[in-house]
Fold this sequence. Notes:
Blueprint: H1 3-26, H2 34-46, E1 50-52, E2 59-61, H3 64-73, H4 76-92, H5 101-121, H6 130-157, H7 161-168, H8 173-192, H9 195-198, H10 203-225
Antiparallel strand pairs: 1-2
Helix pairs in contact: 1-5, 1-6, 2-3, 2-4, 3-4, 3-6, 3-8, 4-5, 5-6, 6-7, 6-8, 8-10
Amino acid sequence: MPRNAKLFVAVTIASGSMILITSLWWDHYFESGTLFLYCLVLALLASTFKIKLPGMPSTIGASFVLFLIALTELPLEETLMIAALSTLVQCLWRPKSRPAVERVAFSIASTVISIAAAFAATAELKTQALAAALVVASIVFFAVNSALVSVVIALVNRQGPMQVWRNCHRWAFPYYVVGAGLAIAITAYGRSHSWALSFTMLPLLYMTYTCYEQWLKPQRAGAVDNT
Length: 227
């Protein structure tokens, strides 16, 4: 790995670690109870629904829908804990090859940074406009996370970050749009009726994952043929 790529990875890991440690240090009581456990367990399950994007060495998981819900309903430290643990499971669940420690650490750190950015961007919207808050959170999370991953891939392969982003992450955007819609429906129902019942909508998430995985298969095959 080139020196500048190593430096970028190190800075990202240090930044994500600082955000996570600081958040847990200042408020570590986890007072949300049942809703936190619902989101954590379901996010861990959803993180096993992994999709490999064309031309990408890493995967995206379905757990981001639970991240979005947690962003509007839980404190930052609880949301970060859910995101960090889910990303760890996503990296370690049935990988094709044993993932390097720095790759796992970078994935967790980039997710933590993206969650923190989305949390800050939606601070004033959560109680006033649920749909707007979740749309903004989805956009910010996707933008920050995809930018961090694109930069490190660009540095490793000596390409332009925008070229990497266009070639890889553009395939993920529709998935995030559908996921944001599911998060809006689940959160709206949970707020007005029952959180336990609202999470019965999550089979729709698995259906979305399955359909998207099938749609991407020929795209991945095309990416392999062009290499």
